């Protein structure tokens, strides 16, 4: 549980699951800064039996350095609304409410449920209703991954700390309101963050920290062709794991996101380090490293200069700039870190691009393909470069060592797109936001009509809070220069201008 929030004084713990109590509480008004939007009813093609949909989402985050990822609530929520309208839900039967913290969100959900039961909520109360809820939970340091990265919401009802008690009260109020909604025949679709002890009707899982780490490590392994590497010439890899340095000293916060990120990375990389096919120039990762040794590669990333100085220190850049350290790959964890890594490598004299490493495409081919001039043409993968052992060839060695490494990231920041195109950053990733919006809309309409989801291709089953739950599944989009046109430009996530073209 992350307590990066200011919680108001304690309120009534939870809604009692009875209509009488709900009636008594019906006068509750929406909380403070919670935004509410009732869509104007002008949808001529909508059908009455599509029911009501109420969406409760976090207010948009402000990312570090004001860079903008594509995984934002302000992008997903309107796309869900548009998909709902296309699927037959009347504009007037769609409600959108946002809140800046769990306390305000739980109050907002409670008020909506009570007012809906009492018939005071402006919607078609006789029609069936589905609540779409994305519980608010995102520590500042984790916003670098976008707004959707999963954080399981847990709490201790018996905590002695007043902030923890208030947080537990807010979480329990949200759970009680959702349970009351279900008892009254409403359906609940929960997005990203789970709630301790609560089972929704449908769950929409987003990428976890472990999955983000595992994805980047796999992309790095594939691009570097680590399976073909030799222990005689191991690939040199650095992992830069950003986290909130205060988390290491404050018992009220946790480091689970960073720990799980490293767990996913090391699940993939450990065999290559054990076999001697991979090594770390800084020796922060060794054959004896375990999944619990995350602190060895962790650092405070709150300022750009901190990221750059950590990399320079890892590469001993301050000791001798004239002899660059050979570096094959850097797992940066997110695009904010990746951009600063690229800037520092450029300053240190590294040249070239990721496309030069085991190339299947060229930078010119990438640009021509994205701009529609020609299709990509695959090129033969060259033999691995051989480093000379002769002292007389030190200049050649330095040139070889200064070749640009693979850099991975996550979050699909718009500001990172030019670096993807020019090969300075090999890959990024994001949720398939548009597909998820369509999936959620179809699910809501089915829940409000037939209630049958089995024939929808994106429906899966998973265990959530110990129970088998229907889930919506879409693969995470792994994005590199060779598929950027197909994954981001053609679907309309970004423009050619965003890509720096």
Oligomer state of the chains in this structure? single chain
Q: How many individual β-strands?
A: 16
Return residue spans where pLDDT drops below 50 for at least 5 consecutive residues: 1-32, 40-47, 247-252, 376-389
Structural class: alpha/beta
Concise overview:
The chain has helices spanning 19-24, 73-87, 102-118, 162-183, 209-224, 256-274, 304-314, 335-347, 363-370, 394-401, 417-421, 433-448, 484-489; strands spanning 35-38, 52-58, 94-99, 129-133, 187-191, 202-204, 235-239, 241-243, 278-279, 298-300, 329-331, 406-408, 427-430, 459-464, 467-472, 477-480.
Verbal overview:
- With 501 residues, this protein is of the alpha/beta class.
- Helices cover 32% and strands 14% of the residues.
- The protein is globular.
- The relative contact order is 0.13.
- The two termini are 42 Å apart.
- The longest helix has 22 residues, at 162-183.
- It has helices at residues 19-24, 73-87, 102-118, 162-183, 209-224, 256-274, 304-314, 335-347, 363-370, 394-401, 417-421, 433-448, 484-489; strands at 35-38, 52-58, 94-99, 129-133, 187-191, 202-204, 235-239, 241-243, 278-279, 298-300, 329-331, 406-408, 427-430, 459-464, 467-472, 477-480.
- Helix 2 links the parallel strand 2 (52-58) and strand 3.
- The protein has 13 helices and 16 strands.
- Helix 2 crosses helix 12 (433-448), helix 5 runs parallel beside helix 6 (256-274) and helix 7 (304-314) crosses helix 8 (335-347).
- The strands form 4 sheets. The protein has an 8-stranded mixed sheet with strand order 1-3-2-4-5-6-15-14, with helices on both faces. A 4-stranded parallel sheet has the order 9-7-11-12, sandwiched between helices. Strands 8-10 form a two-stranded parallel ribbon.
